[in-house]
Amino acid sequence: MRRAPFSIAALILLTAIALMRPDPAAAQTARKTLDVYFVDVEGGQATLIVSPSGESLLVDAGWPGFDGRDADRIASAAKQAGLTQIDYFVATHYHTDHVGGVPALATKIPIRTFVDHGPSVEKGDRPDALYQQYVDARGKGRHLLVKPGDTIPLAGVDITVVAANGEHIGKALKGAGQPNPLCASFTPKSPDPSENARSVGFVLTYGKFRLLDLGDLTWNKEQELACPNNLIGPIDLYVTSHHGLDQSGPAALVHAVRPRIAVMNNGAKKGGSASAWRIVRDAPGLEDLWQVHYAANSDAAHNSPAALIANLDETTSHGLNVSAASDGSVVVTNARTGQSKSYKARP
Q: What pTM did the predictor assign?
């Protein structure tokens, strides 16, 4: 039997059908959620954010030394998230527990854009060396200098810088701006001349979901974001300022933003002070306060239940993972237990 000739038109049609067929690999990497990985860097900060577009932003990189411990943990989280590069790195400020791990991390995974508030305000041999090491690493990528009101162009989400270099936004974010009655009872602390008060802080918005991360911004500077009017508005996920130290996190701010969920990036013996913990736990509308570590210097009454703590001692290195949908619903997973808790969207 003679076989019919295979027409060019048929070949074109089959090729078009093949091109329209979904790529299984691409389908596996498609995202419908905003994913946040709180990496345990023992009382520093390393918060990896992956937008629904697949682009990534890392807030700080933990400590140097310890045989590359923190860089390894961050690189592992990036691999878990399916990343081959960090698109944006935000240096909240120039302290060892936040940018000390940058040089080692940059040897493990490419960092495309470095975001910061400009030169360090701290001077001396050690601060100068730390800042220079960061600048050297930054020189291998692009540099984005930010000020309050600027945006960080992470595809798939909106990120507005609300504090940087000791300044704060002058205009309220959308939906905010209401007078804050909590300001009447605010008691200031001594002015902070350090890099902490220069921290880059931002609000990330994905649909109806909102996240607030202020780095190590300190007490008086945080009050400026909330008084006399609340410039931030309601938040779904609050990354507690300064690891839960009592130098930060006044009720005038924390209670005004009414977080539904809070994550404290404390270490076993750093942060998690009883007074700071209590302010967060008492925030109106808070459903849960999660901790990266059990605070050994506090007591059981000022630590969350074990199910909400990633590490119960200093010998483990578990993280907390968050997935947020555009409707504002959230799932938090404790990597130590593998258990997840779901939170409905705010009414």
A: 0.90
**Angle of CA points 230, 234, 240, to nearest 5°:** 90
Task: Return d(Cα 14, Cα 6) in angstroms, integer.
Answer: 11
Q: How far apart are CA 67 and CA 104, in angstroms?
A: 10
- Domains, the chain: 32-336 (3.60.15.10)
Give dist(CA 177, CA 231) in Å, integer.
Answer: 5
Q: Are 261 and 346 in contact (CB under 8 A)?
A: no
Q: How is residue 115 annotated by DSSP?
A: E
Q: How far apart are CA 162 and CA 167, in angstroms?
A: 8
- Alpha carbon of residue 171 to chain centroid: 23
Task: Give me the phi and psi of 267, to 5 degrees please.
Answer: -105, 175
Q: For 205-219, what is each residue's pLDDT tens digit?
A: 999 999 999 999 999
Name the nearest CA neighbour of 227 among 184, 195, 265.
Answer: 184
